[in-house]
Queue: 2 jobs
Job 1
Amino acid sequence: MQENNNSGRGLSARERGILDTFAARELATVTAANLQEIASISRSAANLVLRRLAHKGWLRRIRRGIYSPVPLGSPSPRVSVGDPWQIAMALYAPGYISGWSAAEHWDLTEQIFNAVSVVTSVPQRTKRQEHGGFSFFVRSVDKSHIFGTKRIWHGSSQVLVADPSRLVIDVLTTPDLGGGSRHSIDIVRAYWKSEHADPTGLLEYAERLDKGAVFKRLGFTAEAFADVSREWTIRCQAGMSAGISRLDPRGPDRGRISTRWRLRINVPVEAE
């Protein structure tokens, strides 16, 4: 294991200046483009400098072409570095933080998860990934589905996070993003009881995605947890697909059926 005592030994004056600039800008991740902003060099030369700094233990390789500065005083470059939300923005752009991570941000859950829940328009080979000492749960969507986000400060950088209504649509579409169907239902319940509840905004997002099963889950949970208008209900029902869908899309094909919402209730749902 390569040790890093951060004494500056083995660094040229130029490399030391580069690292000082990265530190001053509080960058969670750095790429060749970041280096080209501060040094008049080609992309290939910038990549070579970054690889050398990583070899010396001053940068940690997150993924090909993406590095994270090792904090001053770190005994080893193997420690987790940077902010996982900022790293997610670099790894999965264009994308945004959603699921249980967004629920934590909006105070819609008290559970703490080790991984960061991310939605991206970049195809991924696996849903569960490890980068830079952090865990990520990733869902890929069409680029046209990247909307309904808020830009917030997280640490020293801005990141995109699902707004509360988009969060609800995401976990009703893919409950795994919310930590499974039961926890996702808890998030939806908390949303309807919170100041974030926005029935009109929810319908607008659902209509933009145009997924029939989502209208069913949205309408059923709204009536279970809130007092929505007859007009809202009619509009929501208009988007439903034919046939019977499951409240938990990955759950068992058993449980009572809500004929009103053409939905099989295959997980427990309680109003409180």
Job 2
Amino acid sequence: MSPIVILGALALGTSIPLAWWALSGARDERAQATGNLRMGTPSTANLREARLAESAQDRVLSPMMSGLAGRARRWTPSGLRDSVEQRIQLAGLGEDWTPDRVFASKAVLGIAGATMTFLLILLTPSLKVLLIGLAITALLFFLPDVRLQSKGADRQQVIENQLADVLDQITVCVEAGLSFDNAVLRVARGSGPLPEELGRTLQDVQLGMPRSAALERLLERTDVSDLRSFVHAFNQAEKYGIPIAQILRVQSTEIRTKRRQRAEERALKLPVKLVFPVVLCILPALFVVVAGPAAIRVAESFSTT
């Protein structure tokens, strides 16, 4: 099969997700500013001009993707939808991604992979091409899930690393005379996923939500074990009247101890993980370098005799 035909099939198969990605991206700042300025102005009588003034995403792509997401939603179990929404929250993409967008992207990528597989089968009908096409289709279909999982794991790791330092800052502020909410407000001005989540928690409290409920929502958005133990200890201290500064200092010390223990555990696992690369990669090359010349001389001596 000609390489040009293969490249054409690949280009046709990837054109659909690339077009969707390009057209469904966020509008630039100028377009958003223009839309904000037009809000509140009297609507024009010409509906055709008003419709054409909208972007290609609002006129064509958004209704198409909404219909596709609606059909996917009807065939999707409710538990799977809740799981996807939870992964979006853990990844910190709640403002940019929705479950409907995830399902639509999975459908578009899956259709693109199936189209590419169909074209390759028409050009080269063989079992090997079919298996490769099915593997590529499955990879494209599960690509959004892998992206969400990786993004969520990285974000949880960053929160876990920031937690001890954030608790130290809150402890210093509380011992200096600030209330817990004001201390959290000062910490929320920093950068990172944990200050952002603390800022959202503080906003929930300011809107009238009980502090315990706001902290439980924080745990749902992060799912970090150290943060969960701190929240439970804080709720118990607030319930029984234990000084908050004492709880903060104790929890900060425990979290630092756990972080050091995890680092030591990873260091102890490192020699075991290095056994297979050493045996499979380094030792064969070392044997070739050390024993190779001797083996060549022995072979030459036997050949001469």
